[in-house]
Amino acid sequence: MKRKMLLLSLAAAFTGFWAGHPAYSQQKQSASLTKYVDPFIGTGFHGHVFVGANVPFGAVQLGPSNISQGWDWCSGYHISDSTIVGFQHTHLSGTGIGDLGDISFMPTTGPIKVFKGTAKDMQSGYVSTFSHQQETARPGYYAVQLNRYHIGVRLTTTQRVGFHEYTFPKSDQAHILIDLEEGLGWDTPVKTAIKQVNDTTVTGFRYSKGWAKDQRIYFTAVFSKPIKTFAVYDSTAAKTGMALEGEKVKGVLSFTTTAGEKVYVKVGISPVSTANAMANIKAELPGWNFNQTVATADAAWNKELQKVQLKTTDEDKKRIFYTAFYHTMIAPSTFNDHNGDYWGTDKKVHSKAGFTNLTTFSLWDTYRAANPLYTVLQPERVNDMISSMLAIYQQQGSLPMWHLMGNETNTMVGYSAVPIVVDAYLKGFKGFDAKLAYEAVKATAMRDEMGTKYVKNLGYIPADSTVESVAMGLEYAIDDWSIAQMAKKMGNMADYQYFSKRGKNYQNYFDKQTHFMRGRVSATEWRTPFSPFVSRHRKDDYTEGNAWQYTWLVPQDVEGLIALQGGEQPFIKKLDSLFIAKGSIGAEGSPDISGLIGQYAHGNEPSHHITYLYAYAGQPWKTAEKVRYILKNFYTSKHDGIIGNEDVGQMSSWYVFSALGFYPVNPANGLYVFGSPLFDEVNLKLPGGKTMHMVAHNNTDQNIYIQRIMLNGKSYTKSYISHADLMQGGELVFEMGSKPNLNWGKTLQDRPYSAKP
Description:
Radius of gyration: 26 Å
Largest sheet: 9 strands, antiparallel
Distance between the termini: 50 Å
Number of helices: 18
Strand content: 15-25%
């Protein structure tokens, strides 16, 4: 116990490097929850999750990369593989495009090899095999045995520093290769450099292009053992000297090691300079105690996981939940130095910023649930997220779409930062410039690019002018509705009227004959031929989906969508049909269309709110049925336990919200629609020392239907709860049953109509 308390004290002392956020409280800590996190969940199928060591929202994602390439290796790792080409300091988690993989380290023995080899001829390079039985991963820690070299590898991190421990065999040819050519996915180097500064320090940088067109990362590596010899290579060609600059530079540090000798390396990274990388090491990891650093990282993760405390007899559900919760905190990732410096979208260094600058904004995915989840469980970070987006606006003239390493990738459709900014503003977050925020959301919506010119002039995007026109137009309507709410709150009624009208533009894509959203060529003509089932990836009117899935993408005005379908009963009939409709998406469909129930596709984000739409038509019990089915069948504790691409925390955020019992259908109106709570008891730790204690009586795998709700001892008849009420804390009690209560949530005044403030 004394050792445990000592580790907790050490953890508190080292929290200065958690991006400037408050240090750990000295209050009594509950039992650790990191034991329930399994980072290997989602490494199979198409989960694309990161495996390695990191801290919550850290700049460093230090982990192994396999030699294989392809869609299922977007994060660099897939459970089907047993090869390692290096331990790299940056990785993406749950993306559909591969990038990063910067600053690759690989310990080896024997003759020096600087070519990584191939999957068919591994002996030609330095790649090693490994066994999953000799591999360990948990929050903040990764370990593996390299079979080829009999080297044990352990990894941990601080916010901006990767910490390596290599246990070598006896060898007079022990090496550590720094490969600046190596990257992941689309990433290729354009300019790299390495330099030995002294007998324990190496510095360098890596400029590359890929998904993000202009990436820059600097590093400083400090070694615990003096370097015996240092050699530099341009790709595979040996060069003379202690420094080299070129396109594919590599450095090899050599040592003589005794059996079981441990060599440690601290690698600081920076978007600005090698000097800042060294300063990050001095600020965050001045010592060499590896186990202490592991404990500190574990404490950082445990602090976050403790925000949700569960009571259940099902340990497997705990593993699924806390792993999902963990996956929501890998990104957005820190993209500044300990002193506040960062590299902006304008390709300039911004010194000593007054906020923690962040990157890896997968906004088309995360605006739906991940960002609303942050307003509940990461409120101390929301202002940094919004401030980062506003800085990007000032530097590039618009809010980010899919921002990565100081670059706008312009990936996906919509200007999805808008509902995130608006949601934070409407929920009362004060740590950013509200006037600048409104300027940013309006300026982003008023551009004449990516179809917005047509939105302003026609109210719809002609299908023959722009690919993915329906998806784009529906997303814009959500974003514009959000701007209208911010304008109203600010008293700007002219803008409120204008953007409210644009928020209704979804109606222009609705075909009253087929009752589907479809591509419109002109005011009087639809695109033909038309099938609601077929999807042609990047070639048709939808983004990673079909008409069955996109017809429901109106979370900002569900009552308006009900009216378009002809009223409640036709709406319910159509919604019921979604979950049983059978038809082929065709040979050109996106692989993201996974997790199908009929034509509902849980593996992709546009479907995520759909199960909760029943509550708007007075049949919330159908939401309970669908949500429980998805929770049970599409999220498991197995390697393939995520039914689709993790999408930078969005898939897991759906699980976290839905397991708690509610979901933000409209991402910017501050209402959470009830579904079916999964756990018997939950304590949500909220700001200001408040707690929301949630209890589900008679809760079983059969008793999935809410019979009644009590809030703070009083009957609560609404089928939703507001953000304001949730954050007040108190007690929320669900009575569950095996049969639907057909009267609960039925009346109009108890439904979560999206126009409510």
